[in-house]
Design a protein that fits this description.
With 250 residues, the chain is an all-alpha fold. Helix content is 74%, strand content 0%. Helix 3 runs antiparallel to helix 9 (237-247), helix 6 (150-159) packs across helix 7 and helix 7 packs across helix 8 (220-234).
Length: 250
Amino acid sequence: MNLSCRLALCCVALGAFGAHASAAAPNTPAVSISFDGATKPGQLPVTLEIVGLLTLLSLAPALVVMVTSFTRILIVLSFTRSALGTQQIPPNMVLVGLALFLTVFTMAPVWRTVDEEALQPYLKGAIAYNVAGERAIKPLRAFMLRQTGESELGLFVKLGNLPRPKTSDDIPTYAVVPAFMIGELKRAFTMGFMIFIPFVVIDMVVATTLMSMGMMMMPPVVISMPCKILLFVLVNGWELVTESVVMSFR
């Protein structure tokens, strides 16, 4: 039997198998996507609303990092752990969880405004999706602009070759977000430096004391780390750090 005959027999067998499968399962459920359901020009179909919601959920981690207080809080907490010299204590999961809930706490007024002015009116059908988007971005822009300095905003206005803005409303959001991120890194590193100073002093005192006692073979960290932990606990260090980083957003 030549190659062409074999191919013909294979095609006939596959066709018979497909017909048998179709006959055996006549009630196989099918999935269909429809864009019906919009009754007004400014209203999105339910399918597009679901797609938009899934897209927003996939971008949620990036949005939490870029437009909230999460970055500054997490960096300050990480600096605190490094200053203590405790390596992985507290664990990363603990620091990220604490930073996340402090972010929810500090951003609660902004989320409340977004919910009252944008989300609830849109769900009730009082406003269109584009109006809801414009109302939702305004509180976030106000928060970011309040935490961003003129130097950071001026940098991205210059890099983007944008016209000189007369007010903050003239600065586009795509320039406000990176400026806000640069400002957050700057303030987080400044706070981290201030946290490091007392612990560096303790390290220097312990190292000088050991050297004056002739104990040069003993690593200073063996003595300084318990001293730093004890001092940090006595002054309620985590409360002070948390209060400082939360009050920095007021």
